[in-house]
Design goal:
The chain is mainly beta. It has nine helices and 34 strands. The protein has a 34-stranded mixed beta sheet that branches. A hairpin with a 5-residue loop joins strand 23 (490-505) and strand 24. The longest helix has 39 residues, at 7-45.
Length: 781
């Protein structure tokens, strides 16, 4: 007969089991964790490990650990947390999955440190690998992981401290606090599973990271929104600061974007939408310096769209404002930015890839990048060239640049609009279209009020004079095309002007050369093939003050910097070697319709004689029409002025100085020039002063086929000497007697000196021939 247990016995047994279960959960398990698990783990990781409290609720299936620390050997905390609460779902007991109702981690902390030897302290927690053990071999299909479901994962008030003492300058980065929240998370997609996550963190002062969205692990798929704001770039720069020679003083990073990626198919898919990148208050200085070399207050990239499958990046706008750059070239020719921004070892060139790899790289589909608009506003820069004995300074301000329709690879021309101020007063503008591949330019170019004296240090290399004033103006169109089948490679059409020029000898108070304006109008310049066409050159009110100093040298002769003597060894021929003949360059076609001179004035002062001699040309002007490099083209010359303010001076005829065979047919006349201002010459070399006399010239010059034919008719009227000067330099010839013999009844001296010679003859010197003719005349008298 079967014996039936009494309900009281069953109840007692169940009650006893329940008590045992409760004791095991509430008392035994926490004790085992504190007394056995913690010491065992501590022995395995070879680090002290401390747990302040452990509690387990067997009925709620929840575990709570409080005050866990893994310590360095000296007792310094390395990682741990203030509280870990895990509540296992009862569904785990009946379903084939691991389910948690809640996992909560409060104040987790990690203190990661790299010592001076470059070893990370956290790596000491990982047991050394067994090098003799063979890696596990895959067997069949990979096993699927058991599904994991978490209703709520909450990590809050986390702390991450990182310090790297292996660098010459220690790196320190703190992430305080950070937090992660997951809701309805499952490793597999199931109906009703949101897999919502939220991650927040703070890096440094005011630096915040926020990441929200949904994520599924099997298969991998995620949607979300990432927001980064106020991250100090100085904190991030610490990781690479030893690779460069600059310090990043200020700068904050911001980034926001929504994204989606999906790894379900054979091809990964990822998209980024509505992305925005911002860098604010960027300030860069030299290593250990104070003054900024780069300042960028605002830099924004807006409307970023990325598609991994299509390999496209689209940007709506790149905008930056109020940036400042300070650059200089050191005496060794190196620009400071080359030193600052070249990475350590950056000069080393990588070896070329193997041919097979090169072909594979070339076959890869390139990314397509488009930027609707790039805008720079109110940029500025300063540049100092320290390679010169007197450093040159160039300042750029109010730089504004707009570039639209940028496509990379560069296969399409881009509209460009650039304007800037140069050295405070000058203005430069460029507006047109620019292409990169192949290079092409079609743009309008304007230069306004560019001061020449700002570039004096560069002029000092070949000009021994001081430019005191002068500006350059230019407006026109520039065209350039590297691939130019049936047209010139480069073209310029426009106008050029140099205004208010004033050049003076160094340490002199007086200007030697000046003009009000030099305008070159309607220029048409072609390059490759080269041709020049100019409609008009107008030279307004030029002046020249030519001075012969006491040493007998002209001031203008000292303007050019003398070149150092050429190295004779450099030009010495090698034994048995001969220089191959060079093909003469093709003549450049040049056409100048008209050159116009308005009110030219020139003065000459001879300070080598006492009293000083002064003479001048005033109101000189006129035109030269039809200049051309064509052999048969002749230009008409019609110039006139006054010598000594009263004596008419004219140049009339035809010339062709631009052709290979220069042609000249000129008539030069001077009527009634007063000779008395030249009296000091007469007193010094003749021995008598001048009391009266006028000079008239009628000169005819013809040059053709390098042959000079000149007719020089000289008239001297009423030449009368004054008192004797007893000059030690005076000639012993009886000049007054000779002059008296040359005069006719009316007191007129007429001298006819025809000259003929070949300009290619090295022994033919025009001045020498004239002097010889005069001496022969005097000898005959």
């Amino acid at each position: 007969m079967r014996r039936v247990l009494q309900p009281k016995v069953v109840g007692g047994v169940l009650a006893g089991l329940l008590v045992l279960y409760a004791l095991a959960g509430f008392v035994l398990l926490p004790y085992v964790v504190r007394s056995y698990v913690v010491p065992t783990v501590s022995d395995q990781i070879k680090h002290p490990m401390v747990l302040r409290e452990a509690a387990f609720n067997p009925f709620a299936l929840s575990l709570r650990l409080t005050g866990l620390e893994v310590q360095e050997q000296n007792g310094t905390p390395m990682l741990g947390f203030e509280e870990l609460f895990v509540n296992v779902s009862a569904a785990s007991l009946f379903l084939q999955k691991v389910a948690f109702d809640e996992i909560r981690l409060v104040m987790p902390f990690v203190a990661a440190k790299v010592n001076r030897e470059g070893k990370l302290n956290l790596m000491s927690l990982v047991p050394p690998s067994d090098e003799q053990a063979s890696p596990p071999q895959p067997t069949g299909e990979p096993k699927k992981l058991m599904p994991v479901q978490i209703d709520l994962l909450d990590i809050g008030k986390g702390i991450i401290e990182y310090r790297d003492d292996s660098k010459p300058r220690p790196v320190s980065i703190d992430v305080v606090p950070f937090g992660i929240v997951l809701r309805n998370f499952s490793t597999v997609q199931v109906e009703g599973s949101e897999n919502a996550h939220a991650f927040t963190a703070e890096i440094g002062k005011n630096g915040k990271i926020s990441w929200e969205g949904n994520m599924f692990l099997e298969p991998v798929e995620s949607d979300g929104q990432l927001n980064i704001s106020g991250i100090r770039l100085k904190v991030l720069y610490q990781a690479v600061q030893e690779q460069f020679q600059f310090d990043l003083k200020e700068g904050t990073l911001g980034l926001s974007a929504s994204y989606h990626f999906d790894l379900r198919g054979q091809t990964p898919q990822a998209t980024v939408k509505n992305g925005k990148l911002s860098i604010d208050d960027l300030t860069i200085v030299e290593r250990g310096g104070i003054d900024p070399v780069v300042t960028v207050p605002v830099f924004n990239v807006e409307g970023i769209q990325l598609d991994l499958q299509r390999q496209t990046i689209e940007v709506a706008k790149v905008y930056s404002a109020d940036a400042r750059f300070d650059a200089w070239m050191a005496p060794n020719g190196v620009v400071n930015y080359q030193t600052l921004f070249t990475p350590a070892g950056g000069k080393e060139t990588a070896e070329p890839p193997p041919p097979a790899q090169a072909k594979q790289t070339q076959a890869a589909k390139p990314w397509a990048i488009t930027v609707d608009e790039i805008g720079l506003k109110n940029y500025g820069a300063s540049y100092e060239d320290r390679t010169l004995p007197n450093p040159a300074h160039v300042d750029v301000d109010a730089l504004n640049l707009t570039v639209k329709d940028v496509h990379i690879p560069f296969k399409k021309a881009m509209p460009v609009d650039l304007s800037l101020k140069l050295n405070e007063s000058g203005v430069i503008g460029v507006k047109g279209r620019v292409a990169v591949d192949p290079p092409e330019v079609d743009a309008g170019l304007t230069l306004e009020h560019i001061e020449i004296r700002s570039f004096q240090p560069y002029l000092d290399q070949f000009l021994n004079a001081e430019v005191r004033d002068g500006v350059i103006d230019l407006d026109g169109t520039v065209r350039f095309a590297k691939e130019h089948a049936n047209k010139p490679m480069a073209q310029f059409q426009g106008n050029l002007g140099v205004h208010r020029l004033a050049i003076a000898e160094r340490n002199s108070l007086a200007d030697a050369v000046t003009w009000n304006a030099l305008n070159v109008n309607r220029i048409a310049l072609d390059v490759e093939p080269t041709a020049v066409k100019i409609a008009e050159i107008v030279w307004q009110e030029p002046t020249a003050q030519i001075v012969m100093a006491a040493d007998g040298k002209l001031n203008v002769s000292r303007f050019a910097v003398s070149s150092p003597p050429a190295d004779q060894a450099a030009v010495r021929k090698e034994p048995g070697g001969e220089t191959p003949p060079t093909k003469p360059a093709e003549p450049v076609p040049v056409t100048i319709d008209q050159v116009k001179v308005v009110k030219l004035a020139a003065t000459f002062e001879d300070q080598s004689i006492e009293p000083r001699v002064k003479a001048g040309l005033t109101d000189f002007g006129g035109t030269i029409k039809g200049l051309s490099s064509k052999q048969l083209k002749k230009a008409d010359v019609n110039l006139a002025g006054k010598v000594g303010r009263t004596a008419p001076f004219k140049i009339i005829g035809k010339i062709n100085p631009l052709s290979e065979d220069a042609f000249t047919d000129l008539v030069i006349t001077l009527a009634g020039m007063d000779l008395r201002p030249g009296g000091p010459y007469s007193g010094k070399y003749v021995g008598y002063g001048l009391s009266k006399g006028k000079l008239s010239l009628d000169l005819k010059y013809k040059v053709s086929q390098k042959v000079l034919e000149a007719e020089n008719l000289v008239h001297i009227d009423q030449l009368t000497f004054g008192e004797k000067t007893n000059s030690p330099d005076a000639t012993s010839l009886p000049i007054p007697l000779v002059v008296g013999l040359l005069k006719d009844r009316k007191g007129l001296i007429e001298i006819d000196m025809p000259i003929r010679g070949n300009l290619n003859d090295p022994d033919f010197k025009y001045g020498k021939v004239v002097l010889s003719t005069l001496l022969n005349l005097l000898t005959r008298v």
